[in-house]
Amino acid sequence: MTTSTAFDIRRIGGRIGAEILGVDLSGEIAPAVVAEINTALLEHKALVFRDQDLDDAGQLRFAALFGELTTAHPTVPSVDGQPGILPVDGDEGVRANQWHTDVTFVRTPPKASTLRGIVVPPYGGNTLIADSAAAYRDLPEPLRELADRLWAVHTNDYDYAAPKSEKAAEHRKRFVSRKYRTAHPVVRVHPETGERGLFIGGFAQSIIGLSPSESRDLLRIFQSYVTRPENIVRVVWSPGDVVLFDNRITQHYAPDDYGDLPRLLHRVTVAGDVPVGVDGNRSHVLEGDDAAHYTPVAA
Predict the structure, then answer these.
(1) pTM above 0.70, yes or no
(2) Is the pLDDT at 236 greater than 90, yes or no?
(3) Is 266 tagged catalytic?
(4) Closest Cα partner for 183 from 261, 81, 104?
(5) Is 220 a catalytic residue?
(6) Residue of higher predicted confidence among 96 and 85
(7) What pLDDT score was predicted for residue 172?
(8) One of 116, 252, 263, 266 is an active-site residue; which one?
(9) Which of 100, 116, 188, 248 is catalytic?
(10) Which of 188, 246, 267, 273 is catalytic?
(11) Which tens digit of pLDDT belongs to each residue from 154-188?
(12) pLDDT in tens, 38-87
């Protein structure tokens, strides 16, 4: 355990993840403490705050300490009466059991995401978070040099598995009700640390300039480095836990391993900036709009 002036930090993964001890998120948090939390976030990329007594308003207040908030999602409805909160509901057939970075199909994906455990199954239902900067560093030099030059198309409209239920089909219909296609660098330069990370995940569907089969093969190779066990931390939820992760340099996955048990988290996201590649070029829209209704900051 390493000691901070305001709280303790306990690493929970070899390359990613830490628990923050001694911070009550429901109370007033001094600016100096917020700055220290942000420093810890940049280092560890995923932070876990256990046994917090937060309601929706408290989660919104905490997330807003790190920047302007987005609305819940570009296409999926928010919690009733809470436009900034997305219900992550584990109904069978609509579970997001794939590796992804939040909302990369728009030009300005979130800077950071917060998740709060509300209903947690007695087994399973964990969240896995992966360090995409460590994955980039793991690449052999020829693959790193190739990745540095590539751009990928991210979209919310791709070949999903057939919906398992009417509710899942309706969710899919809402998810693609407004279609987005955005070109992002395969290697994103982190705007605060300068680290390079693989910026791909489930919404990355093709590589610009390559055929569909070539794109699938390359994305599969790069993704295999992201999901190496040494690059992953597993968060085992209890009700009241809050997780804050850096959406610019991580991916996450919620395994569908809890049968028909209920699971409910609330997600609040902090607005981000336009990703920048190694060559200094910025992401750009290929189809759809700039999602200004979702990302309210100037970009």
Answers:
(1) yes
(2) yes
(3) no
(4) 104
(5) no
(6) 85
(7) 76
(8) 252
(9) 100
(10) 267
(11) 999 876 555 566 776 786 788 888 899 999 999 99
(12) 999 999 999 999 999 999 999 999 999 999 999 999 988 889 999 999 99
Annotate the chain with DSSP letters as a single string.
-EE-SS-EEEE-SSSS-EEEES--TTS---HHHHHHHHHHHHHHSEEEE-S----HHHHHHHHGGGSPBP-S-SSS--BTTBTT-EEEE--TT----S-B-TTTTSSS--SEEEEEEEE--SS---EEEEEHHHHHHHS-HHHHHHHHH-EEEEES-S-PPPPSSHHHHHHHHHHTSS--EEEEESEEEPTTT--EEE--STTEEEETTS-HHHHHHHHHHHHHHHT-GGGEEEEPP-TT-EEEEETTSEEEE----STT---EEEEEEE-----BBTTS-B-EEEES---TTT--S--
**Residue in 102, 131, 157, 273 annotated catalytic:** 102
